[in-house]
Amino acid sequence: MRSEQELVLGMRSRDPGLFEEFVRRYQRRVYFTALRLLGGRDDALDVSQEVFLKMWRTAADLKKDVILERWVYRVTVNTCIDRLRHRHRVEHRNVPDNLILLTLVERSMSPLENARMMEELNEVKSALDQLTERQRTIFVLRHFQGLKLQEIADVLEIPLGTVKATLNQTLQKLRGLLGISVSSTQGSDGQSVTRRGTKGP
Amino acid sequence: MKFACEQIQERWAEYLYRELDEPELAQFAQHIQRCSICRQEEARWRNLFSRFDVMATADQTLEVPTELVFRVNRQIHLYEDWANERVAQFRNWLVGSLAACMMIACTGWLAMEQIPKWMQLEGLQSLKGTYLKSVYMKRGLEMDMTKGVFNEMEKEDLGIAARDPQKPANDEPETAAQERSS
Lengths: 201, 182
Fold this sequence. Notes:
Strand content of chain B: under 5%
Distance between the termini of chain B: 142 Å
Shape of chain B: elongated
Radius of gyration of chain A: 20 Å
Largest interface: A-B, 46 and 36 residues
Strand order of the largest sheet of chain A: 1-2
Structural class of chain B: mainly alpha
Helix content of chain A: 55-70%
Largest sheet of chain A: 2 strands, antiparallel
Order of helices and strands of chain A: HHHHHHHHHEE
Helix content of chain B: over 70%
Strand content of chain A: under 5%
Number of helices of chain A: 9
Number of helices of chain B: 9
Shape of chain A: globular
Distance between the termini of chain A: 55 Å
Oligomer: heterodimer
Number of strands of chain B: 0
């Protein structure tokens, strides 16, 4: 496996073979970031293709000391935001996600559990759709992609304090949207059960 | 540094994602152990995170569609073909424009060199004479060439040869010419 430096040099010289290696190495990051930001597999695939094509076009202008991961995330986020702004409305797909369902079936879950899981998934997706672009971007990069807050600040080119404050607000908002509260009761088997529901003491 | 509940509220994200420094993380955890309200708050946050576990699990389990690499390669080839075609079109246009400019320049040079000077001069003189005649007519000058109304310069402008006073004019009667000579 080539080092990042070799990849950068290869991309600057527009070597197709090295660029394909770069695509294979970063496609997961690009695709799943786009998937969580846009909410649909078809859009995520289209945007991922567009992201790599943009990077091919500008590869010759790459600086030698570029951090590839940050560049990849920056182009991905900007492309996703452009796509979101061109949409007139965010379509909330209230249909089962077949790939998720396949994953659950492979785990041999019961149909009832599958149905409950799908309902939860749709609720969570709906909550994400109601975030602003910046809130969703920061949350996706931190929670799903595992970037540190400083790295997110570098990718988005905003202050670290803004990232921290926005993430706090986002978590508060998500909690409100999903109606998170804690009310412990004793179940019939003596185990304590944590129940989701309306906000209460 | 000991955390108060108000300070805890502002830094939940950093604590939950383990972005605090070691000393701060220890103080934060200590406060949560002591404070039942903040402990309940932490439970709510863990509940929220668990709601996203399905998505996070899917991201780790699922594969990227295999067609992505194929589509990217195809797009790159199409882009390169398009770019090369544009370069060729521009090159053809540039060569054609240069050739046209050279042809125009050569034609103009040949035109200037090959037309006989007398043709140019005679044409220009004829135009000049026509123009001046119309000017003099507007000024009310009598167009009587035989009487020598015009001075030498005007005659030259009009293309009229100066009349030899000794030579009789064609239209003068012989008697008048004889009288002058005697």
